[in-house]
Amino acid sequence: MKTPIVNRFSSSFTNIGSASSWFEIYAAFSTFMMLLRTAINDLIPLGLRTFIISKLKYFFSDYHPNNNTVSLQIHQFWDGNANHLFNAAKEYLPTKISHTYKSLKVGKLSKNKNILFAFDGKQVVVDEFEGIKLKWKIIEDSEVDDFDNPKEKAFNRRRLKRYYEEDGLMLSFDEKHRDKVMNEYIPYVLSVYENIKAGQRTLKIHSMQTGPWQSSDLTHPASFESLALDPDLKKVIIDDLDRFLRRKELYKKVGKPWKRGYLLYGPPGTGKSSLIAAMAKYLKFDVYDLELSAIYSNSELMRAMRETSNSSIIVIEDIDCNTEVLHRSKQDKFLDKDQLDPVLDLKGTKKVPKRFTMSGLLNYMDGLWSSYGDERIVIFTTNHRDKIDPALLRPGRMDMHIHLSFLKAKAFRTLAYNYLDIEGNHHHPLFDQIEELLEKVEVTPAVVAEYLLRSEDPDVALQGLIQFLQETDVSKEIMTVAT
């Protein structure tokens, strides 16, 4: 009977002094390892062997004595739903990749102007937040175990691989910073993501003529930088918008809906639509252009408002042209009952006028705001503020009244830069004459812009504008004398 290998291996240690004994030990150990490897290959499936090896590699590569490192796994899905934090981290991490990072993924999408890049997981991304060192890495497929059911796990792995090459992310840091990371760093990553997403989002303008809202891209080129508006008034508007955005908790504390109303009034052509576009771009808000003539009942008005989104601007233009929102003492005078939409009652015999009422609009401006969304801006525009019912214009409904008047000297410099590339601090020889005339002549920015477009030569365009302003000034003097 042959001596078992293990017994031979152990007995060899008793005669360890000779060279032959050492050789026997080596031969016995080699034979034992070969048999063990054969047994492992035969008894343990390949997938399980790969998993064990990856875990051993991960353990020995990251092991340190007295290791106090905390690791947070951020998977793409949580209980079958998309993990918002995973998406935030994917957008945040490229902002932390330095020029020394040597392994990147790059791409180009049709909707993006710039080349996109991201880390591919072959290097750890190191971030620093208020003196805390944090490390990000991609979790390999074998490390993800979100689903207990094998079929559900396999299905979701295939779904994840369809959209992403990686399955999750891991954030590591020293345990002593746990509270700060959880309470400050992760919310910071989420806030950066929201800002990135807002910057990449294409703003929409929604209109309602008949039926549901119809959407299209907001392509209006106006911005606060290009707006021909008095610089002091421009600053007041921007400061008011900033104050509104940061006061969410204050509105909640005092029990007020988080909304703000603006009335833009002034002659046609003074830039009301351009100001709305500039506000939308500054806030990154979509615009809902509500045409009141398309609304025939209070319930329809409420339905339209329920379909608007948070973080949006709702615009009601030329409100003075709508008979329902004129001063109530003048309603009978302006109301044309033939323009109402008559409908048959349930019996099909009696015609009943169907229209929304002033009280319905006021309810929309007041109590119903708290039920139908937050972070809303509502803007009314009018050419004749005196025709609007004062009840609609009080604070709480229209909080800020902005008068857009005729073009004056300070705002003219912006137009000259926009149309003729003349810097605002550059004193063109014709500016003094033009600005002096603008103080005497009532002319809108739209009219002045038209004259600036008539020539690519700044001197020719400005001379043409001066001639127009002089003729307008003379005509004004003649009319004054005649009256």
UniProtKB/TrEMBL annotation:
Cofactor needs: Mg(2+)
One function term, GO molecular function aspect: ATP hydrolysis activity
Residue ranges of every copy of the AAA+ ATPase domain listed in the record: 258-408
Keyword Ribosomal protein: no
Catalytic activities: ATP + H2O = ADP + phosphate + H(+)
The keyword Cell wall biogenesis/degradation is assigned to this record: no
One BP annotation, GO: response to stress
A Pfam family this chain is assigned to: AAA
Keywords attached to this entry: ATP-binding, Hydrolase, Magnesium, Nucleotide-binding
Protein family according to the UniProt entry: Belongs to the AAA ATPase family. BCS1 subfamily.
Protein name listed in UniProt: AAA-ATPase At3g50940
